[in-house]
Amino acid sequence: MKHILLFVLFTLFGFSASAQFLNTAGDIDHERLNFGFLLGIDRASFTVVKQRDFSQPGSNPYTADTLQAIKPMGNMGFSLGLLANVKLDRHFDLRFTPKFSFVDRQLEYQYNKASDNKILLKQVESTFLELPLLLKFKSDRMNDVRLYVVGGVKFVTDIRSKKKKANDEVYNPDDDRKLVKINNSFVALEAGLGADIYLEYFKFSPELKLSHSINNVMKTGDDNIITHPLAGLFAEALHFTMYFE
């Protein structure tokens, strides 16, 4: 999926660079403050930090089987939101891009058990409100396109209903989704690259970006067959976002 997104992004770069310098996108470069909206495709996963003895026989008191591997399984989701862009100078912009993100993440546990050598843990689906504050560095305009890099920090909070969160807190040994609990809020770093493509009445900006939580997002205090081998989980995601300004 990552290679497909890269192909689409650089194809758009090449197409835009061949255009004539005709479009002003509604004279957007002359505005100190402008607004827009965004649509995104996200691939969410975890960075897994395992206990040192996770694969040693007898290290997990909740099972007699020996754990061989823990693998994060990336899942696709989508996001939508708004954009506020402040022009600082010729090459720098400050961007605030609040959005709703709909994702879930999975972990796969592989045991040496002959009859059932895999346990698939599906994390509860999440609905996040993400509040990124980003600094954008953009190149000089080449015909109808500018390339740019962007980076910053974002605050992420789970906005699922209180009832659904309460249901997820109830321990149920028959529901693997409830054996790992994630913090309701966390902070992450973001960095990426993109292109501003000037059209007649608006500016279109495809962007590819990575995000990674600063701290461990796994809730502490719950010890069970799934969490015992884990030292921590860090939320990560690959974002392909389309901005319309």
UniProtKB/TrEMBL annotation:
<dbReference type="Pfam" id="PF13568">
    <property type="entry name" value="OMP_b-brl_2"/>
</dbReference>
<protein>
    <submittedName>
        <fullName>PorT family protein</fullName>
    </submittedName>
</protein>
<keyword id="KW-0732">Signal</keyword>
<dbReference type="InterPro" id="IPR025665">
    <property type="entry name" value="Beta-barrel_OMP_2"/>
</dbReference>
<feature type="signal peptide">
    <location>
        <begin position="1"/>
        <end position="19"/>
    </location>
</feature>
<feature type="domain" description="Outer membrane protein beta-barrel">
    <location>
        <begin position="31"/>
        <end position="217"/>
    </location>
</feature>
